């Protein structure tokens, strides 16, 4: 429900406050997001069973090591894909669509930054799920993601531009990343400082 409200709720808000053309620009950005994230997910899909298997076999150290490696490699892969898109957004959109609405370029760039931050969390989520203690995780992280809707509403209602909905999402993604690190540290002695310095 938090993911649905984060995505579809912001669509409704942008439609209300900025109009259908801005909403169309967000739709294009979301398509780019889905394509880039699916590539990264296919990489972590190969790594996730190993993390779960090692954690279930009580080899926590190796499971943590795999999650570090997965986070780092996911970020590198995402950067490899995203960097050309970030630098040449306008040219790629012209080749792809020929015409695109205003705000599309900034939306694509901001959503790519958001997906880069999300890529650091993918293997940590697997590690968290492997513990089997996910209630508090779902409540805290899901609750934090739910803030995307009311915070975006506040910015848009007070006259800020539609790109602020993306700034809110990026800010909350960073908060959720650190929240995951903190929760894993509490649950399985996850080396938070090592993650921050190494990953």
Q: What does this 3D model show about the protein?
A:
- By secondary structure, this protein is mostly helical.
- Helix 2 runs antiparallel to helix 3 (60-87), helix 5 runs parallel beside helix 9 (164-188) and helix 6 crosses helix 9.
- The protein contains 10 helices and no strands.
- The chain is globular.
- The chain starts with a helix and ends with a helix.
- The longest helix has 37 residues, at 20-56.
- It has helices at 2-18, 20-56, 60-87, 89-97, 104-119, 122-131, 135-146, 148-157, 164-188, 192-198.
Chain-averaged pLDDT: 88
Quickly count the helices. Answer: 10
Q: Note the overall shape.
A: globular
Residues in helix, %:
over 70%
Using only C-alpha atoms, the radius of gyration works out to 18 Å
Defining key terms:
10 helices; mainly alpha; 199 residues; 86% helix
List the topology elements.
Layout: H1 2-18, H2 20-56, H3 60-87, H4 89-97, H5 104-119, H6 122-131, H7 135-146, H8 148-157, H9 164-188, H10 192-198
Helix pairs in contact: 1-2, 1-7, 1-8, 2-3, 2-5, 2-6, 3-5, 3-6, 5-9, 6-9, 7-9, 8-9
Short description:
With 199 residues, the protein is mainly α. The protein has helices spanning 2-18, 20-56, 60-87, 89-97, 104-119, 122-131, 135-146, 148-157, 164-188, 192-198.
């Amino acid at each position: 429900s938090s993911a649905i409200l984060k995505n579809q709720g912001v669509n409704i808000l942008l439609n209300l406050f900025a109009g259908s053309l801005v909403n169309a620009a967000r739709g294009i950005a979301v398509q780019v997001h889905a394509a880039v994230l699916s590539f990264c997910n296919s990489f972590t899909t190969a790594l996730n069973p190993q993390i779960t298997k090692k954690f279930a076999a009580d080899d926590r150290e190796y499971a943590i090591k795999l999650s570090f490696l997965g986070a780092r490699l996911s970020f590198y892969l995402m950067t490899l894909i995203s960097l050309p898109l970030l630098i040449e957004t306008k040219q790629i959109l012209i080749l792809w669509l020929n015409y695109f609405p205003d705000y599309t370029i900034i939306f694509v760039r901001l959503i790519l930054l958001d997906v880069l931050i999300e890529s650091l969390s993918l293997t940590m989520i697997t590690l968290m799920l492997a513990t089997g203690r996910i209630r508090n995780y779902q409540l805290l992280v899901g609750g934090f993601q739910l803030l995307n809707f009311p915070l975006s509403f506040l910015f848009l209602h007070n006259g800020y531009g539609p790109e602020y909905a993306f700034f809110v999402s990026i800010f909350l993604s960073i908060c959720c990343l650190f929240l995951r690190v903190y929760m894993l540290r509490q649950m399985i002695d996850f080396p938070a400082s090592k993650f921050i310095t190494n990953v």
